[in-house]
Amino acid sequence: MLRLGRQFLISLSCIAVFASRAIADELEDVAGEIPVSATETPVTPGAAQFTPVDLSFANYRMEVMLVVLAIGLIANYFYGSQKNTELSKKWEEPISDVLKANFSAVGDGTRVLEWDSAADMLLYASGRRHCKFVQGHLMLKARQDPIALLNDLAANNQEKLEVEVVLNDDEFKGFVFAAVPRKRAKAMLRDRYDISTFAKIVNSDVVSSKVALLSESADVTAQMLNSGLDVILADEDALLEEVVITDAPAEKPESHDFKREKKLMAVLRLPEPTEANVAKFKQALEFVFYLVDHVAEGVSLRPETTRKLGKARDDAFKEFARMAEQEKQDALAKTLAEKRRIELEEVNKMSPEQRRKWEEKDRKKQIKKEQSKRIRRVK
Questions:
Q1: Transmembrane segments in this chain: where (predicted)?
Q2: CA atoms of 74 and 104, how far apart (whole Å)
Q3: For the chain, what is the HEC assignment?
Q4: What burial class does residue 140 get, using C-beta atoms within 10 Å of its C-beta: 0-12 exposed, 13-18 middle, 19+ buried?
Q5: pLDDT band of 33, cuts 50, 70, 90
Q6: How many Å apart are CA 208 and CA 70, to the nearest integer?
Q7: CA-CA distance, 72 to 351, in Å (whole number)?
Q8: Does some domain include residue 44?
Q9: What local confidence, expressed as pLDDT, does residue 93 receive?
Q10: Residue ranges making up the domain that contains 309
Q11: Cα–Cα distance, 41 to 193 (Å, whole number)
Q12: Cα dist. 96→162, 198, 239, 265 in Å?
């Protein structure tokens, strides 16, 4: 944050320097434009000279505007940064309380939230059952940056907390489920590999009409809603805006050795930090970590559902299995080619009689190899 502040002040200093130089140039031009009367007494060489300067506002309108703009930006930067600092302190306490109640190691031991920019803070915690760690991103409005703030207002971007929990691999039956604002459902189906590959929009009468459910199985949907999520999603004023549970990557992998992590992600809206809203926010964040336990302990999919989910992943990742097999074959071919090259170098050093015997032996080996290939094809 201090680094960004220094960069901002340097930029404003450049504006001020530019304005000062413009004023100096203007003064020089004005001084040069004042005519000298022919009847005036000649100036004695070496004597002090004074030329009156027109300091009217009309001559320096642009320069004054630049200086005022620089002062305004500086004032807004410090005001916006201070406002975000005050808000972060109000939200750090409830976030800290929930994390410390659920994790044994929170933050760096001194602070829970760490500044990433003048409007963004990061969090990290570990040491909890059913998961490896949690990381989060507190996103405030860019009050210190007028352009970014206008963009937030135009896009109706809300202040929020994004949380990502990496689950233990062996405690979670892999599936994809999401509950998101309906206006974002199509974008998620288009942009996220895991959701577009495995899930589809499903209808439900127990959630708000503003919420869209994306799931790959009715069994998964029912068991996730039975966690109490249905009650929260039925409340249009709920602070929990998004929940995504997945065992596949959000972006399509480019190779077969991609990292497969099981995750639970949630987005919580930040309301005005009144006492009642802070208490409501704490309950919503607590529910996110309750879902971690529910996924590990409360979800018991039917055998046919488990088989269906497994087959869907086998089909989806078949392409990557072929890529892995091809890479293995290429590596083997490269090894054999290198071995053959070394062998031929040794043959070239042999006597004619030794070479003739080696060639006969090699010919029989190649015939035997071809016969083995034919037998495998027949089988």
A1: none
A2: 41
A3: CHHHHHHHHHHHHHHHHHHHHHHHHHHHHHHHHCCCCCCCCCCCCCCCCCCCCCCCHHHHHHHHHHHHHHHHHHHHHHHHHHHHHHHHHHHHHHHHHHHHHHCCEECCCCCCCEEEECCEEEEEEEEECCEEEEEEEEECCCCCCHHHHHHHHHHCCCCEEEEEEEECHHHCCCCCEEEEEHHHHHHHHHHCHHHHHHCEEECCCCCCCCEEEEECCHHHHHHHHHHHHHHHHHCCCCCEEEEEEECCCCCCCCCCCCCCCCEEEEEEECCCCCHHHHHHHHHHHHHHHHHHHHHHHHCCCCHHHHHHHHHHHHHHCHHHHHHHHHHHHHHHHHHHHHHHHHHHHHHHCCCHHHHHHHHHHHHHHHHHHHHHHHHHHHC
A4: buried
A5: very low
A6: 47
A7: 91
A8: no
A9: 94
A10: 84-316
A11: 88
A12: 15, 35, 18, 18
Mean pLDDT of 300-319: 90
- Mark whether 289 and 165 lie in a shared domain: yes
pTM, full prediction: 0.71
**What pLDDT sits at residue 11?**
54
Nearest to 312 by CA among 178, 216, 169: 216
Is the CB of residue 281 less than 8 Å from the CB of residue 307?
Answer: no
Distance CA 104, CA 204 (A): 38
Q: Does residue 15 sit in the same domain as residue 160?
A: no
Establish if 23 belongs to a structural domain. Answer: yes
- Can you state the angle between helices 61-102 and 146-155, rounded to 10 degrees? 60
Residues 103 and 181 in one domain: yes
Q: Quick check: is 300 in a domain? A: yes
Alpha carbons 202 and 184: distance in angstroms, whole number: 14
| Residues 342, 226 share a domain | no
**Same-domain pairing of 67 and 195:** no
